Amino acid sequence: MMTGGSHKIAPDDEFQIPRVITPFPAPKLSHLPMFQGDHKERLYWGTYRPQVYFGIRARTPQSLVAGLMWLGDEKDDGKHAMRHFCENSEDLKSFGWKEHNGIDFGRQELFEQDMILETSFVKSKEGSLGYGGDWSVRFNLINKGLNDEAKRTVHLFFYIADEGGNVLNLGKDVLDLEESSLLASGSRADVGKWQMHLKSEAHPETHYCGFKKPDIVNLSDAVQKNLSVHENKYGRLQLSDTSDDSSSIYVFQISTTTQSTIDIAFVSGIRGETSDVEQRIGTLTGSPLSTLLEEKHIAFDAKFKECFHLSEKVDSETLMVGKAAIGNMLGGIGYFYGQSKIQAPTSTPQQAKSEDKFLLYWPAELYTAVPSRPNFPRGFLWDEGFHQLLVWRWDFRITLEIVGNWLDLMNIDGWIPREQVLGDEALSKMPKEYVVQIPSNGNPPTLLLVIHDLINGIRAEKFNKEERDEILSFLDQAFVRLDAWFQWFNTSQKGKEMGSYFWHGRDSLTNRLLNPQSLSSGLDDYPRASHPTDDERHVDLRCWMYLAADCMNSIIEFLGEKDRPVTVDYRLTVKLLSDFNLLNQMHYDHDLGAYLDFGNHTEDVRLVWKEVTGEDGRVSRELVRETFGNPELRLVPHIGYVSFFPFMFRIIPPASSILEKQLDLISNRSIVWSDYGLLSLGKTSSLYMTYNNEHEAPYWRGPIWMNMNYMILSSLHHYSIVDGPYMAKARTIYEQLRSNLIRNVVRNYDETGYIWEHYDQTKGTGEGARAFTGWSALILLIMSEEYPLF
């Protein structure tokens, strides 16, 4: 019934779908009236393909899709690289959105070695009869070489494809656009008859090719193959000007020079022969388009100032980084559709590790921001809560819909897959070993962090009555799903002791990892107990559960006691998890003055080289973990981000001497303090900056991460304004840390053009994924001093 790879997975019985792939039995939040009508139509078209350098699609499963490719600089072998999918490499000097409003406008700059390719996108409903309106793109090619006057040839490749396989019509004068500007046309059920036109005063040379199957993932290879055939035959770098019968994708080569501008307009809902198409094309190209883009730019600046109040506070370089943070966050929002692969119920650990034994989740759509366009262009559950802390301050309705989309992915047990790999494009950028999701593993419930923040925004009167009512209406409908989600955590991740929790999914059998990972925690290789058992207690998860219970309790207080089934007494749960004495009994180390995990642990574990005989009989040398001491149940002596979770969630009373010890730890240069931000793992840890195996570099074992720095900074701000003996100390550390974080991110952006995934613990240089404007974009909230309240 359900298939995965070559293995057929039988359901529980012939007529019953396995629980793990059974949707939660409640109305979908994406179907709420607030997300229909004008809201749905104004968000229909967008730059919802974050995985490519520039791409457009509609929020529908089988959309009309458009995108850009271009030939980059020559490589060592004399061939040109075809730019299409975003890459985490130095081939481009930098790329990213400078402005984006999340709805109908964005402007991006892509830096080749000697050229800037500026891409702009804008929508217009004026005069359009098609659903979602018309849209236009502008490609502005700017010299950046030693001689800015010298022009060079540039080959752009703009494509239009119908994912539903509908046949496209080629414009009759594509090879000579003097008489007609029409590139392609077609008809669809959603937008009616449509046309796409090209206008440019540069009079570019144009060529084309067409393919029957809209295979976007392999499109750049197909185009390069087409180019090479013609180049080998005639010595010219141009497409073949041929197409398959019934082509559903056309690629248009636009050969022009730098210092030129190309406008491409899409109009839909065309009726009859005597339509106003030419007039509509005219308003979306040339000087009218320039005027429209300038209006959108001015509006973006005004809204940025209104939302974040930065203009008077900071210098121009810092302001530019702030705009890039929100622009890239909104420009990185994507629409995905497909089926997640879920690990099938198994009986043995060996079967559980098989990558091709899986069930298919139901077909689902997901509207979400992404952490990084080149490295992580897909939905990540725990990242998304941090993303929405920023997005809701720009447009809370976008946040509500994104949160609703994620909650709609919940199964009947209340579980949500933590990574969403939906569709072929998303799958093409995903390492195979991480595709299949494991239904016993969770991820920090950060969506409740943003919901908590919205509730506190209502308390602080940041919303008018209409907005307040929309948010509360959403929470009323979402409550049953949120309650089930909490209950899933509260049962599946609970520990042996009352009020204790641990992240499931650590591998207790591996001998290839120095410290078995806790991927479900989001902190991956952050060191936990050396020997995973059910006796573990993870202090970070305990604090997440406190936040979740407190959020649920706040929702109930706001909505009132209605006749709804509630699985947990949230007031009592909050009381239990905020019990300071119980927290200290479970997790506090008085000697170190730090909160720690608890588990079966020894420090005497090392990776050693050994000769290993494989299944094929071959002998190889491999790094294998060996334990030289006896593990025992104890607090795990690694100070780092996990140690500060009770501080982050403000469970520590302002007058407690433990608060002073936390402040001392945070500001200690010998442990986590640096001039660039707080280190993920203290220098005193035995696993500080250690590899977890031969190839796995330290990830959360020293490098500086923005999301955790933001949370700690947020609590420093809190403790600096509430009455207590350590207010002044908290204020001093807060100001120093905030200044360090801003200065380092701005410096790196100025030098590289990117906001980075994490930053080096000794030099502050950007590392990991480029264009990581997921939670690293929280630097904007740090600039504006906007923090969540608990």
UniProtKB/TrEMBL annotation:
The keyword Amino-acid biosynthesis does not apply. GO terms for biological process: oligosaccharide metabolic process; protein N-linked glycosylation. InterPro entries: 6-hairpin_glycosidase_sf, 6hp_glycosidase-like_sf, Glyco_hydro_63_C, Glyco_hydro_63N, Glyco_hydro_63N_sf, Glycoside_hydrolase_63. Pathway: Glycan metabolism; N-glycan degradation. It is a single-pass type II membrane protein. Its EC number is 3.2.1.106. It is found in: Endoplasmic reticulum membrane. Residues 285-785 form the Glycosyl hydrolase family 63 C-terminal domain. Keywords: Endoplasmic reticulum, Glycosidase, Hydrolase. Its main location: endoplasmic reticulum. The keyword Hydrolase applies. It catalyses: N(4)-(alpha-D-Glc-(1->2)-alpha-D-Glc-(1->3)-alpha-D-Glc-(1->3)-alpha-D-Man-(1->2)-alpha-D-Man-(1->2)-alpha-D-Man-(1->3)-[alpha-D-Man-(1->2)-alpha-D-Man-(1->3)-[alpha-D-Man-(1->2)-alpha-D-Man-(1->6)]-alpha-D-Man-(1->6)]-beta-D-Man-(1->4)-beta-D-GlcNAc-(1->4)-beta-D-GlcNAc)-L-asparaginyl-[protein] + H2O = N(4)-(alpha-D-Glc-(1->3)-alpha-D-Glc-(1->3)-alpha-D-Man-(1->2)-alpha-D-Man-(1->2)-alpha-D-Man-(1->3)-[alpha-D-Man-(1->2)-alpha-D-Man-(1->3)-[alpha-D-Man-(1->2)-alpha-D-Man-(1->6)]-alpha-D-Man-(1->6)]-beta-D-Man-(1->4)-beta-D-GlcNAc-(1->4)-beta-D-GlcNAc)-L-asparaginyl-[protein] + beta-D-glucose. One of its GO terms (cellular component) is endoplasmic reticulum membrane. GO terms for molecular function: Glc3Man9GlcNAc2 oligosaccharide glucosidase activity. Residues 43-205 form the Glycosyl hydrolase family 63 N-terminal domain. Cleaves the distal alpha 1,2-linked glucose residue from the Glc(3)Man(9)GlcNAc(2) oligosaccharide precursor. Belongs to the glycosyl hydrolase 63 family. This is Mannosyl-oligosaccharide glucosidase. It comes from Brassica carinata.
